[in-house]
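Course assignment 3, question 2. Fill in each field.
Student: A.L.
Task: Predict the tertiary structure for the chain below.
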Amino acid sequence: MLFANSGHAILGTLNKNLPFDPVADFAGVALVGEAPAIVVVPPSLGVSSLQEFVALAKSKPGEINYGSAGIGTSTHLAGAYFALKAGIDIVHVPYTVSATIIADLLGGRIQASFVPMAFVLPLLQDGRLKALAVAAKEPIAEPMAIATARSQGIDYQYATWYGVLKGVVNTLSEAIAEAGKDPELQAKIRVQGIEPRHIAREAFDAHIRDEMVRLAPLLSSIGENR
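Answer field:
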């Protein structure tokens, strides 16, 4: 089992030589939460709404810098996706230390960031940073009010998801299939009165469902008589 976030799904796109497929080799168990991106700017930038920020970026293409936790991270993609949806040219500045993003925002060395609210909440509450929009379907009401980007004319939705996956299903299935070809193992299985047979993944799921459907009338009658 693996507790993962959005970064897991894009590993294969960013790393061509991975020994596994982050999507095909894992199956989702449950999504447990999402942290939508907040469009954050320092008050010194002089904008009070998302529309004003976009207008400023369009008037100064390539001059607005946004910070992220690094190339390929969720905060990088959140900013790049916003730029795409808003039709603006802003410059990505990757960091290796997240605290430096805050310091450079406050110091005016970068002009924006696209981060989960928890990362900047104290600074938003005391007014040192300003939240222009949340990249979600619904606005945030607590612990502070933040309007959606959609309500301000930009169809921007982006969140870091967190969830549980069951891992390397293909690899495990293939290993069991290979082991099942061993004549000595097959002989030991047959001695127990079991005929070796391999059905993998979705086909095995279907096999179980089909058997339950076939036996449903019998199981129902047994349950009634208990």
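Instructor remarks: Residues 2-164 form a domain with the D-Maltodextrin-Binding Protein; domain 2 fold (CATH 3.40.190.10). Strands lie at 2-5, 27-41, 65-68, 91-94, 112-116, 130-134, 159-166.
Grade: pending
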